[in-house]
Amino acid sequence: MSAITAVDVLDRRRQLTLAGDVDGLAELYALDAVIESPFAGVPVRLEGREAIREYTRRVVDSPLRLDDYEIVELYRTEDPEVVVVELRASGTLTTTGRSFATTSIQVLRIRDGHIVLFRDYANPRVLEEFAADPPPEG
Hints:
alpha+beta, 6-stranded mixed β-sheet, globular
């Protein structure tokens, strides 16, 4: 039986995320996993699978729908557990129908088929601007 690769985990994460599978996504994280979003305005840090599960549930239940995302580039590091991902995502605010597109850099530590550390370096202003009232049509 072959080992689960980082690409396998990232592919599974994409499937689960787009399906809105909260429990499946949570199980992809190690019991003591950490998620950090250093640029989220107020830095976000989630510790442990159950905190990640509850946060994911709130996101899935929110009016923000992720329609698609793709890994534009995947960089391997000298540490075989660490990968850096350039990600492009698109979504919709279901309450208004407005759509958005954004990019981010993500750093992941993946061990034994589980995400141990996930750092998301996304521009928080994209969602702030997206959630604001749309500019008047001229």
